[in-house]
From TrEMBL, chains A, B:
Protein name: MarR family transcriptional regulator
Cited SUPFAM superfamilies: Winged helix' DNA-binding domain
Species whose genome carries this gene: Albidovulum litorale
InterPro entries found in the cross-reference section: HTH_MarR-typ, MarR/SlyA-like, WH-like_DNA-bd_sf, WH_DNA-bd_sf
Signal peptide range: none
Occurrences of domain HTH marR-type (ranges): 8-142
One Pfam family hit: MarR
Listed Gene3D superfamilies: Winged helix-like DNA-binding domain superfamily/Winged helix DNA-binding domain (1.10.10.10)
Lineage: Bacteria, Pseudomonadati, Pseudomonadota, Alphaproteobacteria, Rhodobacterales
Domain of life, per lineage: Bacteria
Length: 144, 144
DNA sequence: CACATTTATTTCAAGTTTAAAATTTCAGCA
DNA sequence: TGCTGAAATTTTAAACTTGAAATAAATGTG
Protein backbone atom coordinates (compact mmCIF):
# COMPACT_ATOMS: atom_id res chain seq x y z
CA UNK A 1 0.00 0.00 0.00
CA UNK A 2 2.08 2.89 -1.28
CA UNK A 3 1.76 6.42 -0.05
CA UNK A 4 0.63 7.48 -3.50
CA UNK A 5 -2.19 4.94 -3.53
CA UNK A 6 -3.35 6.23 -0.15
CA UNK A 7 -3.38 9.74 -1.54
CA UNK A 8 -5.41 8.61 -4.53
CA UNK A 9 -7.89 7.02 -2.13
CA UNK A 10 -8.15 10.22 -0.11
CA UNK A 11 -8.66 12.30 -3.22
CA UNK A 12 -11.40 9.91 -4.36
CA UNK A 13 -13.14 10.11 -0.98
CA UNK A 14 -13.02 13.88 -1.12
CA UNK A 15 -14.35 13.92 -4.67
CA UNK A 16 -17.19 11.65 -3.62
CA UNK A 17 -17.97 13.89 -0.65
CA UNK A 18 -18.23 17.02 -2.77
CA UNK A 19 -20.32 15.24 -5.37
CA UNK A 20 -22.73 13.78 -2.81
CA UNK A 21 -23.10 17.10 -1.01
CA UNK A 22 -23.78 18.94 -4.26
CA UNK A 23 -26.26 16.28 -5.40
CA UNK A 24 -28.09 16.47 -2.08
CA UNK A 25 -28.25 20.23 -2.36
CA UNK A 26 -29.53 20.14 -5.95
CA UNK A 27 -32.03 17.38 -5.16
CA UNK A 28 -33.47 19.50 -2.35
CA UNK A 29 -33.50 22.54 -4.60
CA UNK A 30 -35.39 20.76 -7.37
CA UNK A 31 -37.82 19.22 -4.91
CA UNK A 32 -38.69 22.46 -3.12
CA UNK A 33 -38.65 24.88 -6.03
CA UNK A 34 -39.71 22.73 -8.95
CA UNK A 35 -41.42 19.66 -7.52
CA UNK A 36 -39.16 17.34 -9.45
CA UNK A 37 -36.27 14.98 -8.85
CA UNK A 38 -32.67 14.61 -9.93
CA UNK A 39 -33.14 11.53 -12.14
CA UNK A 40 -35.99 13.20 -14.00
CA UNK A 41 -33.91 16.32 -14.45
CA UNK A 42 -31.01 14.26 -15.76
CA UNK A 43 -33.19 12.52 -18.34
CA UNK A 44 -34.76 15.76 -19.47
CA UNK A 45 -31.35 17.43 -19.72
CA UNK A 46 -30.03 14.60 -21.88
CA UNK A 47 -33.09 14.84 -24.14
CA UNK A 48 -32.82 18.60 -24.35
CA UNK A 49 -29.23 18.31 -25.50
CA UNK A 50 -30.31 15.86 -28.19
CA UNK A 51 -33.54 17.51 -29.29
CA UNK A 52 -34.03 15.13 -32.22
CA UNK A 53 -34.37 12.25 -29.75
CA UNK A 54 -32.23 9.30 -28.69
CA UNK A 55 -32.70 5.58 -28.29
CA UNK A 56 -33.14 4.07 -24.85
CA UNK A 57 -29.66 2.58 -25.04
CA UNK A 58 -28.09 5.89 -25.95
CA UNK A 59 -29.93 7.49 -23.07
CA UNK A 60 -28.69 5.00 -20.50
CA UNK A 61 -25.14 5.31 -21.87
CA UNK A 62 -25.32 9.11 -21.63
CA UNK A 63 -26.48 8.98 -18.04
CA UNK A 64 -24.30 6.02 -17.03
CA UNK A 65 -27.28 4.13 -15.66
CA UNK A 66 -28.74 0.73 -16.49
CA UNK A 67 -31.30 0.14 -19.23
CA UNK A 68 -33.95 -0.80 -16.73
CA UNK A 69 -33.42 2.43 -14.89
CA UNK A 70 -33.84 4.52 -18.02
CA UNK A 71 -37.03 2.62 -18.82
CA UNK A 72 -38.50 3.35 -15.40
CA UNK A 73 -37.78 7.08 -15.40
CA UNK A 74 -38.93 7.52 -19.00
CA UNK A 75 -42.14 5.64 -18.15
CA UNK A 76 -42.98 8.21 -15.49
CA UNK A 77 -42.07 11.21 -17.62
CA UNK A 78 -44.09 9.77 -20.49
CA UNK A 79 -47.04 9.30 -18.15
CA UNK A 80 -46.89 13.02 -17.40
CA UNK A 81 -46.64 14.01 -21.04
CA UNK A 82 -43.13 15.46 -20.77
CA UNK A 83 -41.53 12.87 -22.98
CA UNK A 84 -42.64 10.86 -26.01
CA UNK A 85 -41.62 7.41 -27.25
CA UNK A 86 -41.66 6.85 -31.02
CA UNK A 87 -41.00 3.43 -32.51
CA UNK A 88 -38.19 3.48 -35.03
CA UNK A 89 -39.17 2.82 -38.62
CA UNK A 90 -35.84 1.35 -39.59
CA UNK A 91 -35.47 -1.05 -36.67
CA UNK A 92 -38.49 -2.31 -34.84
CA UNK A 93 -36.45 -3.13 -31.72
CA UNK A 94 -35.52 0.48 -31.30
CA UNK A 95 -37.47 3.30 -29.67
CA UNK A 96 -36.76 6.99 -30.02
CA UNK A 97 -37.36 9.11 -26.95
CA UNK A 98 -37.70 12.87 -27.12
CA UNK A 99 -39.05 15.75 -25.07
CA UNK A 100 -42.56 16.87 -25.94
CA UNK A 101 -43.03 20.64 -26.52
CA UNK A 102 -44.43 20.80 -22.97
CA UNK A 103 -41.39 18.94 -21.69
CA UNK A 104 -38.97 21.21 -23.54
CA UNK A 105 -40.68 24.35 -22.26
CA UNK A 106 -40.70 23.07 -18.71
CA UNK A 107 -37.06 22.07 -18.93
CA UNK A 108 -35.96 25.51 -20.10
CA UNK A 109 -37.23 27.07 -16.91
CA UNK A 110 -35.71 24.28 -14.87
CA UNK A 111 -32.33 24.51 -16.57
CA UNK A 112 -31.89 28.22 -15.99
CA UNK A 113 -32.58 27.88 -12.26
CA UNK A 114 -30.44 24.79 -12.04
CA UNK A 115 -27.52 26.58 -13.64
CA UNK A 116 -27.89 29.48 -11.21
CA UNK A 117 -27.94 27.07 -8.30
CA UNK A 118 -24.81 25.29 -9.50
CA UNK A 119 -23.21 28.70 -9.88
CA UNK A 120 -23.76 29.57 -6.23
CA UNK A 121 -22.83 26.05 -5.16
CA UNK A 122 -19.41 26.35 -6.75
CA UNK A 123 -18.99 30.08 -6.30
CA UNK A 124 -15.71 29.47 -4.48
CA UNK A 125 -14.10 28.23 -7.70
CA UNK A 126 -12.78 30.83 -10.13
CA UNK A 127 -11.95 30.44 -13.82
CA UNK A 128 -8.51 29.15 -13.07
CA UNK A 129 -9.86 26.48 -10.72
CA UNK A 130 -12.42 25.42 -13.28
CA UNK A 131 -9.83 25.01 -16.01
CA UNK A 132 -7.60 23.00 -13.73
CA UNK A 133 -10.47 20.87 -12.52
CA UNK A 134 -11.73 20.22 -16.04
CA UNK A 135 -8.26 19.18 -17.09
CA UNK A 136 -7.81 16.80 -14.15
CA UNK A 137 -11.27 15.31 -14.66
CA UNK A 138 -10.59 14.79 -18.34
CA UNK A 139 -7.44 12.85 -17.57
CA UNK A 140 -9.06 10.91 -14.71
CA UNK A 141 -11.84 9.78 -17.02
CA UNK A 142 -9.47 8.00 -19.34
CA UNK A 143 -9.03 4.94 -17.13
CA UNK A 144 -12.60 4.20 -16.14
CA UNK B 1 -26.42 33.47 -17.61
CA UNK B 2 -22.79 34.50 -17.44
CA UNK B 3 -19.99 32.70 -19.16
CA UNK B 4 -18.52 31.88 -15.75
CA UNK B 5 -21.74 30.27 -14.60
CA UNK B 6 -21.78 28.13 -17.75
CA UNK B 7 -18.25 27.04 -17.04
CA UNK B 8 -19.17 26.12 -13.48
CA UNK B 9 -22.03 24.04 -14.87
CA UNK B 10 -19.72 22.26 -17.29
CA UNK B 11 -17.20 21.57 -14.56
CA UNK B 12 -19.98 20.14 -12.38
CA UNK B 13 -21.20 17.90 -15.19
CA UNK B 14 -17.69 16.64 -15.75
CA UNK B 15 -17.20 16.03 -12.03
CA UNK B 16 -20.44 14.10 -11.93
CA UNK B 17 -19.40 12.04 -14.95
CA UNK B 18 -16.09 11.01 -13.41
CA UNK B 19 -17.74 10.20 -10.10
CA UNK B 20 -20.49 8.10 -11.68
CA UNK B 21 -18.03 6.23 -13.88
CA UNK B 22 -15.77 5.49 -10.92
CA UNK B 23 -18.71 4.42 -8.77
CA UNK B 24 -19.96 2.09 -11.49
CA UNK B 25 -16.51 0.60 -11.82
CA UNK B 26 -16.11 0.08 -8.08
CA UNK B 27 -19.64 -1.31 -7.73
CA UNK B 28 -18.89 -3.90 -10.39
CA UNK B 29 -15.56 -4.67 -8.76
CA UNK B 30 -17.11 -5.22 -5.32
CA UNK B 31 -19.92 -7.31 -6.78
CA UNK B 32 -17.69 -9.63 -8.82
CA UNK B 33 -14.74 -9.97 -6.47
CA UNK B 34 -16.32 -9.62 -3.06
CA UNK B 35 -20.03 -10.28 -3.46
CA UNK B 36 -20.92 -7.00 -1.79
CA UNK B 37 -22.27 -3.57 -2.68
CA UNK B 38 -21.15 0.03 -2.52
CA UNK B 39 -23.56 1.13 0.24
CA UNK B 40 -22.50 -1.78 2.44
CA UNK B 41 -18.87 -0.97 1.80
CA UNK B 42 -19.47 2.67 2.69
CA UNK B 43 -21.13 1.79 5.99
CA UNK B 44 -18.40 -0.66 6.91
CA UNK B 45 -15.71 1.87 5.98
CA UNK B 46 -17.30 4.51 8.20
CA UNK B 47 -17.50 2.04 11.07
CA UNK B 48 -13.94 0.89 10.55
CA UNK B 49 -12.73 4.47 10.78
CA UNK B 50 -14.63 4.87 14.03
CA UNK B 51 -13.92 1.52 15.63
CA UNK B 52 -15.50 2.47 18.94
CA UNK B 53 -18.85 2.82 17.19
CA UNK B 54 -21.11 5.68 16.15
CA UNK B 55 -24.76 6.57 16.55
CA UNK B 56 -27.16 6.12 13.64
CA UNK B 57 -27.33 9.89 13.20
CA UNK B 58 -23.55 10.23 13.08
CA UNK B 59 -23.44 7.44 10.52
CA UNK B 60 -25.97 9.06 8.21
CA UNK B 61 -24.18 12.40 8.55
CA UNK B 62 -20.84 10.80 7.70
CA UNK B 63 -22.26 9.14 4.59
CA UNK B 64 -24.51 12.04 3.60
CA UNK B 65 -27.56 9.80 3.41
CA UNK B 66 -30.93 9.89 5.15
CA UNK B 67 -31.60 8.26 8.50
CA UNK B 68 -33.96 5.77 6.97
CA UNK B 69 -31.30 4.71 4.52
CA UNK B 70 -28.74 4.11 7.25
CA UNK B 71 -31.29 2.07 9.17
CA UNK B 72 -31.96 -0.16 6.15
CA UNK B 73 -28.33 -0.89 5.32
CA UNK B 74 -27.38 -1.44 8.98
CA UNK B 75 -30.36 -3.82 9.30
CA UNK B 76 -28.96 -6.00 6.53
CA UNK B 77 -25.39 -5.94 7.79
CA UNK B 78 -26.63 -6.74 11.29
CA UNK B 79 -28.60 -9.68 9.92
CA UNK B 80 -25.36 -11.07 8.53
CA UNK B 81 -23.45 -10.56 11.74
CA UNK B 82 -21.07 -7.95 10.33
CA UNK B 83 -22.34 -5.12 12.47
CA UNK B 84 -23.76 -4.86 15.99
CA UNK B 85 -26.26 -2.42 17.52
CA UNK B 86 -25.84 -1.56 21.20
CA UNK B 87 -28.35 0.61 23.05
CA UNK B 88 -26.73 3.60 24.71
CA UNK B 89 -26.73 3.62 28.51
CA UNK B 90 -26.65 7.39 28.81
CA UNK B 91 -29.48 8.13 26.39
CA UNK B 92 -32.11 5.55 25.70
CA UNK B 93 -33.00 7.09 22.33
CA UNK B 94 -29.52 6.48 21.04
CA UNK B 95 -28.04 3.33 19.50
CA UNK B 96 -24.35 2.66 18.97
CA UNK B 97 -23.41 0.76 15.83
CA UNK B 98 -20.05 -0.93 15.44
CA UNK B 99 -18.39 -3.59 13.33
CA UNK B 100 -18.28 -7.06 14.88
CA UNK B 101 -14.87 -8.78 14.89
CA UNK B 102 -16.07 -10.74 11.85
CA UNK B 103 -17.09 -7.51 10.16
CA UNK B 104 -13.77 -5.82 10.93
CA UNK B 105 -11.78 -8.78 9.59
CA UNK B 106 -13.85 -8.95 6.44
CA UNK B 107 -13.52 -5.22 5.89
CA UNK B 108 -9.74 -5.30 6.14
CA UNK B 109 -9.54 -7.60 3.13
CA UNK B 110 -12.11 -5.53 1.29
CA UNK B 111 -10.36 -2.25 2.01
CA UNK B 112 -6.99 -3.35 0.71
CA UNK B 113 -8.46 -4.49 -2.60
CA UNK B 114 -10.64 -1.42 -2.83
CA UNK B 115 -7.66 0.86 -2.36
CA UNK B 116 -5.75 -0.98 -5.07
CA UNK B 117 -8.70 -0.63 -7.42
CA UNK B 118 -8.99 3.10 -6.75
CA UNK B 119 -5.27 3.34 -7.38
CA UNK B 120 -5.57 1.88 -10.87
CA UNK B 121 -8.73 3.86 -11.52
CA UNK B 122 -6.94 7.15 -10.91
CA UNK B 123 -3.52 6.07 -12.08
CA UNK B 124 -3.46 8.97 -14.54
CA UNK B 125 -3.28 11.45 -11.66
CA UNK B 126 0.11 12.13 -10.11
CA UNK B 127 0.96 13.66 -6.75
CA UNK B 128 0.71 17.14 -8.09
CA UNK B 129 -2.76 16.49 -9.56
CA UNK B 130 -3.90 14.98 -6.29
CA UNK B 131 -2.76 17.97 -4.26
CA UNK B 132 -4.43 20.37 -6.64
CA UNK B 133 -7.62 18.33 -6.72
CA UNK B 134 -7.75 18.02 -2.94
CA UNK B 135 -7.31 21.77 -2.63
CA UNK B 136 -10.06 22.54 -5.12
CA UNK B 137 -12.42 20.03 -3.51
CA UNK B 138 -11.75 21.48 -0.09
CA UNK B 139 -12.70 24.94 -1.29
CA UNK B 140 -15.71 23.68 -3.25
CA UNK B 141 -17.07 21.97 -0.16
CA UNK B 142 -17.35 25.19 1.79
CA UNK B 143 -20.56 26.32 0.10
CA UNK B 144 -22.62 23.13 0.16
C1' DC C 1 -43.65 19.46 38.38
C1' DA C 2 -46.29 19.72 33.66
C1' DC C 3 -46.04 20.70 28.98
C1' DA C 4 -44.10 21.94 24.72
C1' DT C 5 -40.14 21.38 21.97
C1' DT C 6 -36.30 19.03 20.37
C1' DT C 7 -33.62 14.93 19.32
C1' DA C 8 -32.79 9.90 17.91
C1' DT C 9 -34.41 6.32 15.61
C1' DT C 10 -37.56 3.47 13.02
C1' DT C 11 -41.31 2.73 9.87
C1' DC C 12 -43.58 3.53 5.67
C1' DA C 13 -44.74 4.57 0.84
C1' DA C 14 -42.99 5.89 -3.32
C1' DG C 15 -39.33 6.38 -6.38
C1' DT C 16 -34.72 4.96 -7.98
C1' DT C 17 -31.28 1.59 -9.28
C1' DT C 18 -29.11 -2.59 -10.44
C1' DA C 19 -28.41 -7.17 -12.52
C1' DA C 20 -30.45 -10.82 -14.67
C1' DA C 21 -34.06 -12.97 -17.32
C1' DA C 22 -37.40 -12.66 -20.94
C1' DT C 23 -39.02 -10.80 -25.44
C1' DT C 24 -38.65 -9.23 -29.78
C1' DT C 25 -36.17 -8.16 -33.79
C1' DC C 26 -32.21 -7.95 -36.68
C1' DA C 27 -27.97 -9.64 -39.17
C1' DG C 28 -25.03 -13.06 -40.96
C1' DC C 29 -24.41 -17.35 -42.88
C1' DA C 30 -24.85 -22.28 -44.25
C1' DT D 1 -34.55 -20.16 -46.74
C1' DG D 2 -33.77 -21.42 -41.94
C1' DC D 3 -30.76 -21.09 -38.06
C1' DT D 4 -27.72 -18.95 -34.71
C1' DG D 5 -26.17 -15.35 -32.29
C1' DA D 6 -26.26 -10.50 -31.31
C1' DA D 7 -28.76 -6.27 -30.15
C1' DA D 8 -32.65 -3.21 -28.09
C1' DT D 9 -35.88 -2.98 -24.87
C1' DT D 10 -38.79 -4.32 -21.10
C1' DT D 11 -39.76 -6.94 -17.06
C1' DT D 12 -38.71 -8.66 -12.59
C1' DA D 13 -36.88 -9.15 -7.92
C1' DA D 14 -34.11 -7.30 -4.63
C1' DA D 15 -31.62 -3.64 -2.82
C1' DC D 16 -31.16 1.22 -2.11
C1' DT D 17 -32.83 5.92 -1.19
C1' DT D 18 -35.61 9.66 0.07
C1' DG D 19 -38.89 12.42 2.74
C1' DA D 20 -42.43 12.27 5.88
C1' DA D 21 -44.84 10.29 9.68
C1' DA D 22 -44.68 7.77 13.94
C1' DT D 23 -42.37 6.54 18.45
C1' DA D 24 -39.88 7.22 22.19
C1' DA D 25 -37.02 9.72 25.15
C1' DA D 26 -34.57 13.83 26.64
C1' DT D 27 -34.49 18.90 27.47
C1' DG D 28 -36.12 23.31 28.61
C1' DT D 29 -39.42 26.55 30.37
C1' DG D 30 -43.28 28.35 32.87
Amino acid sequence: MSDLSKRRLKAWIRLLGVTRAAENHLREYLRVNHATTLPRFDVMAALYRRREGVTMSELSRMLLVSNGNATAVVDRLEGEGLVRRTPSEADRRTVHVALTPTGATQFEGLAADHEAEVDTLFAALDENDLDTLADIMKRARGQA
